[in-house]
Every structure is written in structure tokens, then in C-alpha cells.
Amino acid sequence: MFTSDKFEDFLDIQSRYHRKISNDFMVPAEIKKRFERGMLSFSADERALFMFEQREGFFKLYFRLIDDGAKLPPHDGTLASFLTYREGRYPEAAADWLRGQGFDYSKTLRRHTASRIIGEISNDGVVNAPADEVYSMLGVCFSVVEADLPPRELFVEADSYCMRSPSGDLLGIVYDMGHTRIVAVSQEARGQGLGRRLYLAYASGKMKENKDIVFHEWVSLENTASQSMFRAMGFEPGITLSDCFVFGGSHPNS
Prior knowledge:
Helices cover 26% and strands 30% of the residues. The protein has 254 residues and is α+β, with helices and mostly antiparallel strands. Strands 1, 2, 3, 4, 5, 6, 7, 11 and 12 form a nine-stranded mixed β-sheet that branches. Strand 8 (160-164) and strand 9 (170-176) form a beta hairpin. The chain is globular, with a radius of gyration of 20 Å.
């Protein structure tokens, strides 16, 4: 098994893997950025190419298999794999392979879609906050594996919409990850419409940038409060997918 942490080595070997089973790799610019920051390494043999992205508390796994008999290379860290879904297509072969490697689903998501947002939009009280403070709150509200938070090194403070209490404590956050949003409200502030107010502030900025924007948000089936919030803002539920596979510790083939 060939292992490296160099971007040039990855590019050299990547073209050999005409995949039969895969979860899609990141775009090349994102891959290069993570290699340069020391966050990526990969392993490859004649049947499979694995790429490991180091995150806070776990490693995110990407893979391409020439056949479906490959095994994970030895690894001591907690591994998680997040399948990338294309519209209307469920990657059954990749999901089956992950289950065969010892992965289990950790959450099931439902996509909600809206072409317009219902509600009174106001940016009153919405601020940016220091990145460390925002990231700390997101870590309290979410498992880093289940939420797929961005690595701390790539976290962008300007992408956060925050509200504070009169004493200055963070009460709620909407963080824009580009492909999805994370909405977090502190335990003591829930049930007061804060998440809705924050999301409306976020949406107002996006609608100014693009009046024809369509919003897509993924919500856990267990999160009934968030599902109710999005329905009240005009979202319609759509596709339901089991999205996140995880297992902890070293993998079963080591």
C-alpha cells in the first residue's frame, strides 16, 4: 500500500483509478489547499485509492475502488465517511461497501427546499463574532462528525450570523458552509424564535445577491423543531437520505 502526504503524488496516481465505487473527491483546488495545510494524506494499491482528511477529533474518508473487494488500510483514528449524493441517485454500492467495512449510519436527513422565504426579514441585532467563539459554540451544539463542521483552519468568521444576549453571551448562530447551513441556538435561548430570526437575516443577504435563489437545507429527521421552523418559512420537504456513516477507533481490518 503506497502512502503519501504530497499533493503531486496524489495527482500522479489519481488518474489510474477508474472508479467502480466511490464517494466523490473534493474539487482539486480544495484538495490542494488541504494538502498544503497538512490536513490530507492518501493510501493506494492496485484496487483502491483512499484519502484521509484530518478533522477535529476524527478523519474523514474519501475513496475510489476499482472493485468492491478492497479493504481499508490500517488506521488508528476515528473514521467517518460522508457520501456525496447526486440528485435522484442513491449510491447503493458505496453504501453497501461502507457497511461491509464496519460503518454504521449515524443520522438520516431530509432535504427542505424553498424558492422564497416567508417572514419579516431584519438584520437587527445580527453580528459577526470571533471565529474561536463561534466555532466553540458549534462544537458544543453538534458532534463534529455528525455535523461535518469545517476544519478549524478553514473556518471563515465572515460566514457566521450571530446574536448575543444583553450580557454579551452568544445565543445563536447560522454558519454558511456554502453547500449547507448550520443553525445552532443555545439551550437557554431555544423556543423564542431565535433560529428563525437568524435564518431570515442570512436569507435576506442571499436574496440581495440573487433574487432567483432557491434555498436547500438538510435537517435531521430527529430534529422536529428545525423541521417546523423551516416549514413555517415556506420550505417543502423533499428527498430523505441516510447521509453519514461513522465508526470509532481503528477499523475492523487492521
